[in-house]
Amino acid sequence: TGFLGSDSLAASTTGTLSFTSPATQFSNVGSYPINGSGLTANNGNYTFVQAAGNATALTITTASQTINFAQLADKSFGDPDFMISATATSGLTVTFTSLTPAKCTMVGLDTVHIMTSGQCTIQATQGGDSNYNVAPVVNNSFAIGFCPVLSTLPDINTPSGVDLNIPVTISNVTGGGIIAVQFVYTYDPTK
C-alpha cells in the first residue's frame, strides 16, 4: 500500500504505469474493469497487484438521445399521402403518431394521410433501449388548407345566339369538403 522508508516510485520501479479497460465507446451499459500495468519492481521488495475495486471501477450508464424531426410543410385538403422521416441521435427507430386523427392519420409507419382541413400534429417518439434513455417527445404541426376552388367553368354547349351568364359566388367555405354547385339552364327559343 505504499513504499518503505526513502523508496520512491522512480527509484524502486522501471516502466510506465498505464491503465486499460476492455470497455470502448461502443460498449453496452454495465461495469467494466480498469487494469493497471507497465511497472516492474527493481529490487524485488515490491509486488504490484490490482485493487479489488478495479474489477468494476468503470461504470457505463444509459445515454441520452434526442430526435431530429424537421418542420413539415403546410398542405391542402385533397393532397396525396406523403412520407415523413425523423432520426434519433442513438440511431434507433423513431415512431410516429397523429395527435389529431380527425385531421390526419398515419398510414403504416411513416406516411401521413390528410382527412380534412385544419391543423395536423404528428408526434415523434423513441422509447430507448438498454443503452439509451427514452428520447424527449417532439411534436410537429402543420396547417391543412381548404381544397382549391375551380375558378373557371367548363364549356357549356348553348344554342347559337344565346348568352349564358351564370354568376357564381363561393365564400366562407368550411370543413374542407367537396362543394357541389348545380347549374340549371333553361332554353327558351322565343326569347
Any overview of this molecule?
This protein has 191 residues and is mainly β. It is 2% helix and 30% strand. A 4-stranded mixed beta sheet has the order 6-13-12-9, with no helix packed on it. It has a 3-stranded antiparallel beta sheet with strand order 7-11-10, with no helix packed on it. Strands 1-3 form a two-stranded antiparallel ribbon. It is rod-shaped and about 130 Å long. The model has no long low-confidence stretch (mean pLDDT 83).
Shape: rod-shaped
- Write the H/E string, N to C: HEEEEEEEEEEEEE
Strand content: 25-35%
Q: Kindly state the percentage of residues in helix.
A: under 10%
Summary?
This protein has one helix at residues 9-12, and strands spanning 13-20, 30-32, 35-41, 58-60, 67-68, 75-76, 82-83, 87-88, 95-98, 104-107, 111-114, 118-125, 138-145.
List the helices and strands and how they pair.
Elements: H1 9-12, E1 13-20, E2 30-32, E3 35-41, E4 58-60, E5 67-68, E6 75-76, E7 82-83, E8 87-88, E9 95-98, E10 104-107, E11 111-114, E12 118-125, E13 138-145
